[in-house]
């Protein structure tokens, strides 16, 4: 009975591990594809273009129907900060895994 229970437990671990690996692989692929977007956002956020666009929005020169989340200082800053934190977490996870 002990052997059967062990095999069942290991089968459950295999199922969870397999699912987690596949999900992380898909998420990493999507994340890697977004890196160009993140780089472009970072460059835009620190550019004169962003400052001009922000000023135009503040002056009411942009159409009210225009989505302008990118002109919110917090929205872009949060995405860039979250990205840096995620990279640190990924590095930490890889380092911890390699030490095992």
Overview of the molecule:
- The radius of gyration is 22 Å and the shape is elongated.
- Helices cover 82% and strands 0% of the residues.
- The protein is mainly α and 100 residues long.
- The protein has three helices and no strands.
Q: Return residue spans where pLDDT drops below 50 for at least 5 consecutive residues.
A: none
What fraction strand?
Answer: under 5%
Q: How many strands in all? A: 0
Helix content: over 70%
Radius of gyration: 22 Å
- Give a quick account of the main beta sheet: strands, pairing sense, barrel closure: none
Q: Cα distance, first to last residue? A: 31 Å
Helix/strand/pairing class, anyone?
mainly alpha
Shape: elongated
Note the run of SSEs as H and E.
Answer: HHH
Number of helices: 3
Mean pLDDT: 95
Summed up:
Helices cover 82% and strands 0% of the residues. It contains 3 helices and no strands. The chain has helices at 2-45, 48-58, 73-99.
What keyword list fits this structure?
3 helices, elongated, 100 residues, mainly alpha
Give a topology summary:
Layout lengths: L1 H44 L2 H11 L14 H27 L1
Helix pairs in contact: 1-3
